[in-house]
Model the fold of this input.
Amino acid sequence: DWTHANGLSYSPDRGSYLMSLGHMDQVVEIDEYSGTLVAQYGGSDVQYSVNTTPISFPHSPQWSREQNLMLTTTDGTTVAVEYAIDSETGVLTEVWSHGRAEALYSAALGEVQELRSGGHLVSFGMGGLVQELNAEGEVIWSLQGRAGKDRMTSIRLLNFREDGSGWGPASGEQ
Done:
């Protein structure tokens, strides 16, 4: 398990897959048709702008509506992060994050989803906490369980549409 591939998402808009490689501290983008590597984010060669959370044991990567990279990262504390990527330099800049104040450590299974409202749904996985944030970043709903082995763990978040037409992440809607 040298890569620990722990998250996969598909983007029809980009024609590619994002896969997080936890043990390599990176996310790779793979072309859906050729299977070739489009880009790597994280790892030892990445450049971050000042005050940007580095990618460490990433999970659940996906693209936001603005084509920013969203994921959870864990390095002592689990944080949901959205990065803008400079297409010319490859530099990652943190444009949104949530989780430092909660100071939770989740060894696995974190996830972040963008909501149509402009807010986010964040799971701290094995940390036992799920939160919905409004567009201003304020927590408007929260579910806290007991964290740890044999306790509450959120494996997958499903964003049910308000009109009852099914489920799916807002960033992948057409």
Observations:
- The CA atoms of residues 56 and 75 lie 6 Å apart.
- The mean pLDDT is 83.
- The two ends are 35 Å apart (CA to CA).
